[in-house]
Model the fold of this input.
Amino acid sequence: MKIKYKRIAVFTSGGDAPGMNAAIRGVVRTAMNFGIKVYGINRGYEGMIDGDIHKLTSKDVSGVIQRGGTFLYSARSKRFRTIEGRQQAYNNLINKGIEAIVAIGGDGTFTGASIFNEEFNFPVVGIPGTIDNDIFGSDFTIGYDTALNTVIEAIDKIKDTAGSHNRLFFVEVMGRDAGFIALNSGIATGAEDILIPETVTYMDDLIITLKENKRKGKTSAIIIVSEGDDAGGAYDVAAKVKALDSSYSTRVSVLGHMQRGGSPSAADRILASTLGYESVVALIKGCEKDMVGIMNNKVVYTPLEKAIKEPHDINRSKLRIARMLSI
Ligand code: F6P
Done:
């Protein structure tokens, strides 16, 4: 097979996610197998503009598969939103002889990549990496499984203290626009209610659920609030509940950025390694503006624009399951 590229670059951008290092490793080692040289771009689009671009060897990616975060660092770049920034980034890539890029990140990363591809006709393949799992074109994004397990571990601990003190806990989890972490951690921990951005939250319904729990003899409860819920964050929801019924002893726990860290789970390491490999294969096959993902156990290529625009639908019926099982 004739390989079109001699040099490619890889970078991570947006919110970091456990498994990004494993994905970079997958890209580097696969490319090497095909005789393609790989460059790492530090700090995402920021480093692309600053020319912070360095050759990566096989040794550079040894011992990284189990490490959380991203050794290429990450950033959200305002400068890349300008044509001047993108032109500078393009010049830097061309100066290094780089002919294609692999972008690991979420929708912000892919939006930048898609515009860059259109303007400069520069080949790019995306790998979905975000704990939010909010990308169309892959059943799971890299980092989601690890984050979910981190959240479950934390909520299990909160349940212990909630039970000891007969308290009502509002636990806020990440997911700016998506409730995947909230919904599935809620099912996995038996939370009394789950508030997600994909559905409208009615405070009266929440109060009914809490009253019903009390009537059945429950003396503590966990309400999971996705940070993007329309009723607000966990502090807002707790205040609203207090205003409607002051009888509860309430506490709020915002899990925050701990959800983004930690050693990637087995599922994330495997997904990241597979997509790292598949991104290089996709480039070799001629993909120039696609994201690689896995759907129903099959590798799929989704045009970047579609991956950004289409919503990754959440299974709302799972809310019913969660409510039915947490009586
Ligand atoms: O990575 C996605 C995400 O975790 C969102 O759920 C969250 O709103 C956001 O990143 C926060 O990121 P940062 O604090 O890095 O801006």
Remarks:
- The mean pLDDT is 97.
- Residues 144-164 form the longest helix (21 residues).
- Residues 15, 130-132, 174-176, 227, 260 surround 6-O-phosphono-beta-D-fructofuranose (CB under 6 Å).
